[in-house]
Each structure stands twice: as structure tokens, then as C-alpha cells.
Amino acid sequence: MTITIIGIGLIGGSLAITLKENGFAQRIIGVDASQDNLDKAVRRRLIDEEMGLEEGIAEADIIVLATPVDVMVQLLPRVLDRAGPHQAVIDVGSTKERLLKEVKEHPNRGRYVATHPMAGTEHSGPEAAIPNLFDHKCTVLVDPEDSDPDAVEMAGRLYRSIPMRIVELDSQSHDVHSAYVSHISHISSFALALTVLAKEKDESRIFELASGGFDSTVRLAKSSPDMWVPIFRQNRDNVLDVLDEHINQLARFRSLLIKNDFETFYRLIQDANQIRRILKK
After folding, report:
1. Helix (H/G/I), strand (E/B), else coil: 3
2. Number of H helices, E strands in the chain
3. What are the tens digits of pLDDT across the range 157-175?
4. Burial label, 277 (beta-carbon count in 10 A; 0-12, 13-18, 19+)
5. Rounded to the nearest 10 degrees, what angle do helices 225-234 and 236-258 cross at?
6. What angle do CA 64, 65, 70 make, to 5 degrees?
7. CA–CA separation, 231 vs 179, rounded Å?
8. Fewest 10 Å CB contacts: which of 115, 132, 137, 220?
9. What's domain 174-277's architecture?
10. pTM for this one?
11. Residue 163 gets which letter from DSSP?
12. Which three-class secondary structure state does DSSP give residue 252?
């Protein structure tokens, strides 16, 4: 397989490492708007060579879009314009409804398989790419019935080679679930970081006393706005829905503190502990 990856950042670069190491890809071509990213990817041997968009598409068996999601909306139709009948095009974005609407009537829609490998870190850029990022994680195939069966089979083989678990969802369900399991976590982390940074101006020892628990709670606040603002824009309604519920829960805890109702506080923490049934690690 020759794989062309458009967008050599954390996800694209990590995918390149994995597919080359496991033998699925014999050749990795990198396409990126940033020459600096391409230079770093070549130096780190994430890619075998760099190419322009049209040349990279023409050379590939599978084309992977790993850009921010707002760029994908503009780029995917152009890629499909050039995709041949034996090529597969996949994306790795965190939102799907907007993207799928953009190419719903495209004559080459069948060559596109919408996917979302559920993995990542708070870091960005080709220097953040790491091996084994996707191992044994879950990847979502979104609306696979709208894609050509052979393209779905190629995407499936790619992810199984890593190996990853594969689940299927429709685009609306995917975006709702992503808002709950990923997008709200990032907003909460951004907000907590801003809260502590504002307080730190008066209490300089906050960070001196910070421990591993604090670091894990605000880790996602290091994530790139270039990646996350487009996600929030495209999944705005779902994020607002879950954010409203989150604010209600925070207000509930605040009210209990005002009332000194620690008996109810205790019970709510016990209820929250039930998350262990879902997160078994």
C-alpha cells in the first residue's frame, strides 16, 4: 500500500509511524500546507517523501485527511474530484455531520469512508507524533453504508492492522457521543485552566503545590485552538447541550456547598463513582 497523508500532525504523523512499522504501508507520502511540518516529518522519518496535493493523491492507494475539521470541509471535495475508482479516501476528524453534508451529492462519494479513531494527546504537530497511539483503541466508521463496500473494506483493513476495535455509527449519533466523551472534557479543561490562571495572579503558590491530579485534570487545556475551535464550531449545538447539563451539575454542587448539605454532596459523589462501570481501566 501507498498511503498519502494530508496533514502531518499528531494524528497523521502517529498513523504514519504505525502503518509503516506494522507493514501495512510500504510507502508514506506527506502533504501539508506547512513546509516546516513537512521538513520535520522527513527528518523524523514519519514520511518517505513529500508531494503536492494532486501528485500525492495520484500516487496513493489510500488518502488520509488529517487536517483540522474546517480545512477538511474545503479539502474533501477537491480530493474526491481527483480520486480514482480503486482508491479509498478516509478522514480522521472529530466531527462528521457538516463534512458528510458537504459531499453528500458528490459523484465520487462512494470512495470516501468517514472515520474517527478515538485517540490523541494534548500535543500537536509532527514532533508530537508517537508510536502505538492507536493500539487497541476504538475507531468509528460513520455512515459506512453510503460508501462503496471495497472502500469500507480497505479502511477496515487499515484499522484492524494497528489493531483497533471498529464500531459503526450514523453521523448524528457520532457527533452527539463525541460531544459527551471528548468535546465537553476539553471545554472543562480550558475553563479550569483559565480559572486557576486567574487566581494564580493573587496566589502564586498554587502551581508550586500542584500535583499529578491537577496535571491530569488540566492536561487537555494544552490542546491547540487551531484544532479545537473548528470542532466546537461544527458541533456547536451538541456541545451547547452537554455544556448546559454540565453547568447545571456545577450549580448543584455550588448550592450544596452554600447550604452545608454534605450528606447530599456525599451521595452525589457516590453516584459519580458509578462511572467506574463505564471506564473499567
Report:
1. strand
2. 13, 8
3. 999 999 999 999 999 999 9
4. exposed
5. 100
6. 170
7. 10
8. 132
9. Orthogonal Bundle (1.10)
10. 0.91
11. T
12. helix
